[in-house]
Specification:
The protein has 285 residues and is of the alpha/beta class. Helix content is 34%, strand content 13%.
């Protein structure tokens, strides 16, 4: 007999395949109580691979390879190898785990879920990195019980990055026009309201890239937060070759990722029952 589907808030308040700390769960038991404090803990554990030189850190090829760690349990194990002190003690730069925006996001999600707070990763595009560009990015979204709304948090934006990027908003409550979730990017570009070539990173951009982020955001609704470069089965062909029916299917996916808690059952069922949305088993290793 199938198990009854939990409420969305209960579902996102528990770890998934990526954020389960496993044998390292004890490390998350003594975290500080406030969101701001937890974000500072994350920032004291990780260093962004693209920002390392800004901090005066030269990374070896071996250390750069830490961005390949998908699972929080393995990230925590690596952190202990680098420095076995409690997580609340900020590491020197050379002892921090090398990651990217996805890793800051997933680590914060793991910490919040471990304390019973509904949280999920969101894949999309930040408007605050380059002028007139929507830069590939991930942030955390948690349920603010007092305000009864999902709130975006950019755990990557420490004091240095806020100064360099001239951030004028609160990273603990990122405005929806500053971080555009992938489903919204898909929708506005499909409607001709934005240029898809302004969405992406480095030399990769366009509708195919937006679709990739839509798939990653969709997987994150099932608590499977894949790496930014992991393959997404449904987009393994030239974007121009998609049929109108396939594009309508992606429209439906985008709408579901933009909907409220009341449509959680639909997005959950779509992942469970549509073989096009299967994440390869080796992605969860």
């Amino acid at each position: 007999m199938p198990q009854p589907l939990p409420s969305p808030l209960d579902y996102f308040a528990h770890p998934g395949p990526t954020t389960d700390p496993k044998d390292c769960a004890r490390l998350l038991e003594t975290l500080p109580p406030t969101l701001e404090q937890r974000v500072r803990v994350v920032q004291g554990l990780l260093v962004h691979i693209f920002w390392a030189e800004r901090y005066g850190l030269c990374l070896s090829k071996e250390r750069q390879g830490e961005v390949q760690l998908r699972l929080v349990s393995r990230q925590l194990q690596r952190l202990l190898e680098l420095d076995d002190r409690p997580l609340v003690e900020a590491r020197p730069l050379e002892k921090r785990l090398v990651g990217n925006c996805r890793d800051f996001t997933v680590m914060l999600c793991a910490m919040l879920r471990n304390q019973g707070i509904p949280a999920r990763a969101r894949c999309g595009f930040g408007t605050y990195f380059l002028p007139n560009r929507y830069e590939d990015h991930w942030v955390c979204e948690y349920w603010n019980a007092g305000q009864k709304r999902w709130v975006l948090v950019d755990a990557q934006l420490d004091a240095l990055q806020r100064e360099v990027l001239h951030i004028a908003f609160d990273p603990l409550d990122v405005p929806r026009d500053q971080f555009v979730v992938a489903g919204q990017a898909w929708r506005i570009c499909r409607a001709g309201q934005a240029d898809p070539d302004t969405f992406g990173i480095h030399q990769w951009h366009g509708m195919g890239f937006i679709l990739g982020n839509l798939m990653r955001d969709f997987f994150a609704f099932h608590k499977i937060e894949i790496l930014p470069w992991d393959p997404c089965g449904a987009i393994e062909k030239d974007f121009k070759r998609y049929t109108p029916a396939e594009l309508e299917f992606f429209d439906c996916m985008a709408d579901l990722t933009l909907s409220g808690n009341e449509h959680f059952a639909e997005i959950y069922s779509l992942y469970e029952n549509d073989p096009r949305l299967r994440v390869p088993a080796d992605v969860l290793k």
